[in-house]
Amino acid sequence: MSDFGFNEMQEIQKKLQEKYKDKWGELSPEKARNQLLWMLIEVGEAADIIKKIGDSQIINNETVRNHFIEEMCDVLMYFNDVFQ
Fold it and tell me: Which domain holds residue 61?
């Protein structure tokens, strides 16, 4: 997982967007507002992992790292949707 980066995060985002396109629908001002709020919640979840578990565990514990990466992918997904 040491080579996981922005491109891999974008690929995960694209897969999620395709998977849920019927549920998520098109972008609108109300949807963008909601996604911005959801993005902030996801940022909080990522920060919570750093605060409660610590940086070293994100680097050294594969389970923690995978959870952190998942939260960061959620952030990126909402970020890209809000600013489309």
Answer: 29-84
